[in-house]
Amino acid sequence: YLRQLLEIDQQNSFAIEKLELINEIYQKQTLIFIAERDFDSAQKTLNNIDKTSALYNETATFITKATESINTPDITEKPTEAKTPIKDNNKDRVQTLLSQAETSMNAYNWTEPKKDNALYYYKLILNIDSNNKQAKDGIEDIFNKLIYSANKHIEQNKLSTAAKRINSAKEIYPNHNDITELANKLKLARKNRQNIQLEQNQIRQQKIKQLLAEAKKQNYNNNAKETYKQILELEPRNTQAIQGLKKIEDNNNIQLAKKEIASGKFDSAKNRLALISNHPQKTILTELLNKKIDEQLAAKIEIANLLKKADGQINKKQWGSARKTYKAILKKDHNNKSAKSGLKKADDGYYLSLAKKAIGNKDFDRAESHLTKVSPNNRELDKVRKKITEERNKNKNKKPTIQIY
Fold first, then answer.
1. Can you give the pTM of this predicted structure?
2. Strand, helix or coil at 16?
3. CATH number of the domain encompassing residue 360
4. Number of domains in the chain
5. Who has the most CB within 10 Å: 34, 243, 287, 334?
6. What is the DSSP string of 58-80?
């Protein structure tokens, strides 16, 4: 992609910079492979260096020297023969490795990460030049830093890190006196820590025992709940505290389930009882809940039958009977919407029928009194009022009858 970008824009600074960085990475890896005498890998890596871009001239010298080193590897010397002077191309490799080692030292990468740390680069240098003073001094410096760091971590009670530093130092000088001294110091620190932990554990167990006794006296109330929580802070898996909290939770759920059953919240009560694992009252409450549910179901069936009966009475204009039936439903279910609506309709029918009867008896005042109890939005109300007015006028215009005795 970067090369395609340069084909479009040969001066693109982003592409040039990134390609240069990639070349440097390949150069670094090639150098490492050469130092390790892995010439096949070195050649493969070298072939990845960009030879067509504008950066080629900058890397041409390195490519030439690296290629010569690959084609004529210096691996023929015998252990008994005197070492030959370092070749120029090896000097370049040594300088590069020294630079990489220095960078790793500054980043505190003394022995890690693998194949990218100061000790690794110094050892590669000694493979090329076994007498290189800078590499030897560097390894000595790493050893001293590891010893100092291990010592500090022991003092700070960071024993795992200290052990890691000692093991790294062993790879450099396995039999060094400082290693032996530090190993003994680490052993003693571990023993002291173990003793401290044992003492702390004894104190913690004594505290837990005391808190468990307090919780028992508190008889599984809310104070006991806080006590059990304190125990779990000291020992998260304490069985007695876990069971104690569960018992408190079960007790609370039992009390809440009783209230829910009493208030008719049967579904909530059923779900709450399901949360209780083992409680002497669970069975009793479950039986009571089932009984209440059965009673509720029977009541619903009875109400449904009464509603059907009341609706039939409304259709037959049996207003008085319908009123009685709806009132009977509301005694069983105070909030039954169908019964409330039906009773309103039955009341209207009942008082309208009384008003009509009063009109027939020429008792207009009584008729109007009955109409005051009819819903204002009833469709028949205006018609009956009009009827009262008409009948009243007729009655006024009617000549009185003269009786002769």
1. 0.44
2. helix
3. 1.25.40
4. 2
5. 34
6. HHHHHHHHHHHHHHS------TT
